[in-house]
């Protein structure tokens, strides 16, 4: 908890004192059968470089907004960084229980200041002190955090009924129809489906089809799904994690051009180096293809040198778990690399790096020839 000063990813004394993030920290966790590699980056503009080097290796991002302030100056900076690296993202309107929180205002500010198309996947039940849960627009259910349990683990998921919530159901149905129209404008496959069998009645449109279409639109970065909640009371966090696994891309869905040249061999990027008193330099790596194991020799393309990974760790903020191997799509922490710096590309051996360079060269020549012919 930030207020208690015991946040897992803000483990430096300076961060705990001030209640802010200064350096980015990585955490790996599982959620409903998915493995999530999360990097918590700073929000303050003074530490913007940390955001830059982490965004580069991530597949998707969650932009967290203060619901009472909407888009702030720093939000713009981070948003532009994500645009530059072409990162699909989800918006989370936090602090819905804060006095002065306004869902409408925050969504408007996303639309106007960030020039993005917000897709409202949730509506809040109450604002400020009265905030008690959210309505899931896609499945027309309400999620209530009634119980006084402080950690927000227990919540009820109920379908909206004509009898008990007539007014809310009407509002949600309108919001769902708007959402369907918005998505249909942006996704042709979904538009055909809507105009075909469901043109008379949007209510019959299956939830899975709508979710799949929102997923495609998010990947194409033509719109951003918007969710809301309160992280302090852990209200709305579970639906946010579900949305991350449902709408943000998996590593296979991001097509990185350079991967075709490595043909499944190791290709990783060192994106951050930390200095540990006991272990020496700890190198954070994003693995793009292949696999990494401890005690194996790897080749640093930028430094033109071969190094040995003595230990391989799974990052968990300042606690690390030693592991026997790690595959593509993950973030690893390696011990024992002496000459690797931020921004270095890592391959399994010099010959595999040269082979990749030859393939890339051939591809380049082919492109060049085609351009000349054109």
TrEMBL record:
Keyword hit for Oxidoreductase: no
UniProt keyword Cell membrane, yes or no: no
Chain ranges of the Tr-type G domain: 1-252
One GO-annotated biological process of the protein: ribosome disassembly
UniProt xrefs under InterPro entries: EFTu-like_2, G_TR_CS, P-loop_NTPase, Small_GTP-bd, T_Tr_GTP-bd_dom, Transl_B-barrel_sf
Classification via SUPFAM superfamilies: P-loop containing nucleoside triphosphate hydrolases, Translation proteins
GO CC entries: mitochondrial matrix
Residue spans of biased composition, Basic and acidic residues class: 360-374
Protein name from the UniProt record: G elongation factor, mitochondrial 2
Source organism per UniProt: Neovison vison (American mink)
